[in-house]
Amino acid sequence: MTGPDPAVAATRVAVRNALGAVFPDPYVPGRPGAHTCDHTPSAPGTPHAPGQSLHHLTTVPAPPHDPRPETDGGVATARPAGRVLVACSGGPDSLALAAAAAFVAPRMGLSAGAVVVDHGLQDGSAQVAARAAAQCRDLGLDPVCVERVVVGTGGGPEAAARSARYAALARAASSAGADVVLLGHTLDDQAEQVLLALGRGAGARSLAAMPARRGIYLRPFLGLRRVTTAAACAAANLEPWHDPTNTMGPGRRTRVRTEVMPLLTDVFGPGVPLALTRTADQLRVAAEALDAGATTLLAQARTDDGAVVVDVLVDAPAAVRRAALRAMAVATGCPAGSLGTRHVCAMDALVMNWHGQGPVSLPGHVLARRDRAKLWIQPSPRTQPSSTPPNSGTQPTSTPPSSGTQPTSPPPGHRTPPPPPPPTA
Predict the structure, then answer these.
(1) DSSP 3-state of 202
(2) Residue 180, pLDDT above cutoff 50
(3) Top-confidence residue, 75 or 64
(4) Would you say 336 and 367 are in contact if contact means Cβ atoms under 8 Å apart?
(5) Close Cβ partners of 34 (under 8 Å, ≥ 6 residues apart)
(6) Residue in 299, 293, 312, 298 with CA at minimum distance from that of residue 373
(7) What is this structure's pTM?
(8) How far apart are the C-alpha atoms of 238 and 231, rounded to whole Å?
(9) CA 206 to CA 203: how far, in whole Å?
(10) Average of per-residue pLDDT across 300-325
(11) Residue 397 pLDDT more than 90?
């Protein structure tokens, strides 16, 4: 008895491994109650190609003591132990993901649905979304819903579309009662993300690119190439939609995909995408270590009134200190994607090279300012209508608690290093 096509098998194994990390025991009793999503009901489809073995690679046989009944194909009939939602655009990557999830999830005691986000940015987008939803239903996914969004302009077209998309995915996950949402990013997407970050001069956090898991979002295909997902669709007789913006247009991501990556492959060989993703993996480990150190540092430096003690920051390694300042700014309201190196260095100068300079303006209408032995990162007055900060009597917002007027020089005997020469640019 032959097994599935190798590409189909690879996608199933990737999904099984990703879900297995979240749901390690497929025999945990399911939660009662049904969750629904606005969608058009349809008869369940067949989640596998005719003639393929249901026991190959992804079947999890029940232990002898498990009384739960099964179908002949090893699909559990008891209430699901968890709920999975696939984000499907109808493209090759997400359609292969939908097919793999439809096969794997029920064999792990999980239910699987799908959400299709219609950004409304191209002519015929509603028809593309409807077709993708129909394909997901034919695969046996349920519920399947289409989320139509209005894309704003903040941060540029790509960032605005991403923000709208993730907001829609979060709504759909909540509506469907999903534990996780599967995303179809591949190894090629990861490599392109690294190149884009390099072009911006980004730090380790951005160069680490996309994690396999963040919150409720899982990316099972980060170890698979696009050629594999395309082959999986072909083997399963699925007809994906090919987004023209992926291969045409002036966008940087498109040009990296169609111009830069082929050139690098020609110069360095076909292993370039894998090498870039290895770099991302290594930097992600380093970034996670920095984040852990930053959390510890902030816990040590934080005061009851929300400031941090400068002397504690001064004694920390520069990388950890700057990571702590960045984390503090993001927690205050700075958009992480807009907070760049120059902002972090300006905050760091308030700690290490303070000679009476004023507050630093940060993205998201946030201010960082120094008051003698303390550093404050707070919403600016324009976003904080109250003119009386905590524990300050009638002091204005621009003056931190426990201070009179903004000092023009550090107090005598303070350990702040001497200022460097003025910058030339």
Answers:
(1) coil
(2) yes
(3) 75
(4) no
(5) none
(6) 312
(7) 0.74
(8) 10
(9) 6
(10) 95
(11) no
3-class secondary structure, 98 = helix
Gap between the Cα atoms of 102 and 11, Å rounded: 11
Strands of 360-362's sheet in order across: 308-309, 374-379, 366-371, 360-362
Q: Give the model's confidence band at 383: pLDDT under 50 very low, under 70 low, under 90 confident, else very high.
A: low
Round to whole Å and give the CA distance between 338 and 6.
42
The answer to whether the beta carbons of residues 369 and 346 sit under 8 Å apart is no
**What average pLDDT score do residues 76-96 get?**
86
Give the Cα separation of 148 and 69 in Å (integer).
39
What tokens appear for 333 in the block?
Answer: 């309201």
**Chain centroid to CA 323:** 19
Amino acid of residue 188: D
pLDDT digits (tens, 9 = 90+) for 121-151: 888 999 999 999 999 999 999 999 999 998 8
Number of Cβ within 10 Å of residue 64's Cβ equals 5
* Tokens encoding 222: 């980060």
Q: What backbone phi and psi angles, to 5 degrees, belong to 83?
A: -125, 135
Radius of gyration of the chain, Cα coordinates, nearest whole angstrom: 26
- DSSP code at position 401: T
* Whole-angstrom distance, CA of residue 349 vs CA of residue 243: 46
Start-to-end CA distance of the chain, whole Å, equals: 71
* Other beta carbons less than 10 A from residue 238's beta carbon: 19
